[in-house]
Amino acid sequence: MFLQAIKVKDNRLEPIQLKQSPKVLRQYSPEGQSKIGIFNSTLFHGKKSVENRKQNTEARPLSSFQRITKQAFYKNVFTTQYIFFCENGNNGNLVRRILQGRGWFGEQQTSYNVNFIWRQSNKGFNYSTLTSKSVCINHLEHHHEISNKNRLHANLKTFCQKTNKKMDDFVPVTFIINLDSTTLQNDLKKFVDYFNEIKKDKQQKNIWLLKPPDLNRGRGIQLFSDLKILVNQITEFCKTRNLNNQTKTTSKTAKTLIITSPEVNENTGQTQIEFTINQTSNQDRILVLQKYLENPLLYNGRKFDFRVWVLIDHTNKYYFFKEGYLRLASELFDINNLKSLFIHLTNNAIQKNHPHYCKFELGNQLSLQDLQQYLTSQKNSKVTSVGIVQKMKELIHQTIFCAGSKLRDNRKDFQFEIFGYDFMVDNNGNIWLIEINTNPCIEESSPLLQKLIPRMLNDAFRLTIDKFFSPFKTSQENFLNNLYEYSIPGYSDKDNLWDYMGQI
Known about the structure:
By secondary structure, the protein is α+β, with helices and mostly antiparallel strands. The protein is 30% helix and 21% strand. It is built from 16 helices and 20 strands. Helix 6 (149-163) packs across helix 12. It is globular.
C-alpha cells in the first residue's frame, strides 16, 4: 500500500515517504452491493452527515496533518500530470470540484492542448484529434443516434421491424415531420388521418406534444388537442428556427398546405385549415409530434416521470446507475387544463419557476424507494420499484441495440457519454420511454441530488478517465482517498454504483 504524509518546513509543505504497512480490509454489507434503488431520500437531511462529522472532530484538537487543506495535500502528494478543461454551464463547478479532488489533474481555462475536455455538446469538436491517450472528451461522436428524438425514433423503428417488436408498446405513438421535406404534405396527411381516428374515440382527449428533436429540459415543448392550434405552433416554430439560424426564405419556396379537420361545415361538409410554409435548404426544421400519456400513474394526485442515467464508456461497455429519481409536478394533474405546463412537464428547469416549487418535496424530487413506500401505502400491487427498474433496463438494452453499430463507429477510443433517460409509467403499470438526453441536467437542486449526482459523476470518472489518466502506477483504492465525500446510505464508499449491463 502506497502511503505518504506531509510535514511543514520553513512554511512549505513537503512529502515524507513512509514504509509500507499491511492493508486492513473494511467490512461491507453485501446487500449494499447488489440492491438497486435502496436510498430513501426522506430519511436524509442535507447537513446531517456534515454536522455529525463536525461534532466528532470538535471533540479532539486537530493535528498538524489535519490542518492542511485538502487541495494543498493533493498538490504535494501528486505532481500535476494531466490538464483538464471544463466548460461553464450545467453545474460545471461540480465537475471541476470532482476533478480537483484528483491531485494529478490541473485545470486550464481553454480547451487547447489539454488531456480531458468536459463540454455541454460536441458541436465543432474535431474527433480526429483523438490520436492517442493524450485527450478525452465526455461525448461520443455519434451520440445523436439515440439522443436526437427523430434519430432515436428512426433507429428504434428499424430495429423493431427486424425483431418483430411493436414500438408502440413502449414508445408513445410518434410522427416525425420534416418541414423542408418534399414529402411534407403526405407526412402531415398521415398524422391528420391518425389524429382524426383517435378523435372518434370518446375515451381519449386526443392530446399531443410538439417537441423540437434536439432540445432537452422541456425547451420548446407545447401541447395541443386541436389542429388549428398545431398550425399556430408550427408557424411559431418556423419563426424561431429561422431567427436562430438566420435563414432567408423567398416566396418562390413557399408551399401551401391544406389540412382537413373532422368537424363538419354546413357549406362544404368539412373544414379545411390552410397555411403556408416557406421551405428552405435548412434540414434543422424537424418536428416531433408525440401522443401524450393521458393516464399516468400519479403520486398524491400529481404527475411524475423518472430520470435515470446510462453510461457508455470508452470501451463501448454500457452501465445503469443504480439510483434514479422521480421528478414531480407542482400542481395537481388535470387532463382538461392544457394551458399550464406546470401540470404536464415535470422537468426541473420548468418546475423551479412555479410558486409552489418545493412545497411538497425539496426540489420536487423523490427516490425510487420513496415511490415504493407510497405504492405500498396505496396497496398498489400492479407497480413496484423493482419491476420498474427491470423494465427500464430492458428498454435501455433495446435503445443501445437499435443504434449499436452507429454508436460503436468511433474512430478513437477516448470518448464516453453519460445519458439521461426519461421514463413514465401509466396507471396500468406499463413503462414508457419518453426520450434520451445528452448533457443531462446535473444541478444539485435537492438534498437527494446533492447525494446522487456527485457520486454518479465520480463513479463514472473512475470507470473512464481514471483508467488512462491515473497517477503513477497506483490503484484507485490507494489514490482516491476522498471517496467518503460521495457517500450514499446503503452503499459502501468504495462500491461503484454503475451496474454493468453489456457491451455494444
